[in-house]
Amino acid sequence: MGDFPDLLVYKKSFELAMNIFELSKSFPKGEMYALTDQIRRSSRSTNICFIEAYRKRRYRAHFISKLSDSDMENSETKGWLKFALACKYIDQERYEDLTSQSDEVGKLLNHMINNPEKYGVT
Has this prediction a pTM greater than 0.90? Predict the structure, then answer.
């Protein structure tokens, strides 16, 4: 089994975090410590919690717990995207694209949660 950078969920969650980083550069300065910081943090945490889970896959409960944390952060990111749309910082098309990416990450994480043995967990 390869290392975490080889896994699709790692690649997709990293890509989403970077897309959000680039997008959030255009958010108003007044949002720096609110929406901008929060959406960057949650999108990055999705990826980082996954890495932590993968490194702890020897321990089934820890693996699933950290994947659950990653999924929670991904859901939080979707919430912040909804705020960005409502505040008119992003348009509907960009919102749908990013939430679709987030949905894909969520499906991959949930597959891992429901099938830990396929990822080296005994």
Answer: yes
